[in-house]
Design goal:
This protein is of the alpha/beta class. It folds into two domains: about 90 residues, Rossmann fold; about 140 residues, secretion proteins EscU (name from scop), CATH 3.40.1690.10. The strands form two sheets. The protein has a five-stranded mixed beta sheet, with helices on both faces. Strands 2-1-3 form a three-stranded parallel beta sheet, with helices on both faces. Helix 2 links the parallel strand 1 and strand 2. It is globular and about 55 Å long. About 5% of the residues have low confidence.
Length: about 230
């Protein structure tokens, strides 16, 4: 719960419609956890509960429920779940159409897709840091999606783009280079990963502080680098 509150306070622009997945309706723990969520989230006028369904603590049920909800409500910006198992199912549903993942490599992960028939620019399907980033990477490995280490780009997309939203126009060139590389992998081509340049004004350290504020340098004490631009081999 503390992580949810921290995220809401740090990213008020991400307020909007959300979905809640609960455990078994007959389970007292499910009701207790749901009340705990709402004791906090109901304080934020910008958050709107669009759907609330039981997934019975099941990853498979969570996947099916969230998949249906996202089709009916494309405006959904987030999902809260009563346990990690259901959360994994929700992430898997969000990533169903993902084409590739960019990482930090361990602290951040962003899953994207590009379909010009649906949107004129790549769209973020799922993003996360910490445990959610790990879950995204595990799902990428399970579905054999390219997982590319672009630390500066991963943080930039993470901090500037909501889930189910197109990337910022200033990042088109950077992400287009990654998309072209991913498409070449799908064609079976062997080519070196491209060097990607992220605009200085859209670079962030691990804590979301703009790199421009510190002259493009990493925040002292940060365990991550800000200017690596060539990924490890997929």
């Amino acid at each position: 719960m503390a992580a949810i509150v921290e995220r809401v306070n740090a990213h008020p622009a991400e307020l909007g419609a959300y979905v809640e997945l609960t455990g078994r309706e007959s389970d007292t723990n499910a009701a207790i956890r749901s009340r705990g969520f709402h004791d906090v989230l109901d304080r934020y006028a910008g958050l709107k509960l669009t759907a609330r369904q039981s997934a019975n603590w099941s990853q498979a049920e969570a996947f099916t429920k969230v998949q249906s909800i996202l089709q009916a409500h494309p405006e959904i910006k987030g999902v809260i779940a009563g346990n990690d198992t259901m959360a994994m199912g929700a992430i898997a549903a969000a990533m169903r159409k993902a084409q590739f993942v960019i990482t930090n490599p361990t602290h951040f992960a962003v899953a994207l897709t590009y379909d010009p028939d649906l949107a004129p620019a790549p769209v973020v399907l799922a993003k996360g840091r910490g445990e959610k980033a790990l879950a995204i990477r595990e799902l990428a490995a399970e579905h054999k999606l390219p997982c590319l280490e672009y630390p500066a780009l991963a943080r930039s997309v993470y901090y500037t783009t909501r889930e189910r939203q197109m990337i910022r126009e200033e990042l088109y060139a950077a992400v287009a280079g990654v998309v072209a590389f991913v498409l070449s992998l799908e064609r079976g081509e062997k080519r070196p990963a491209p060097v990607i340049d992220v605009p200085l004004e859209l670079r962030f350290d691990a804590f979301g502080k703009p790199a421009a504020d510190s002259g493009g340098q990493a925040t002292p004490g940060s365990a991550e680098k800000t200017d690596e631009t060539t990924p490890a081999a997929p």
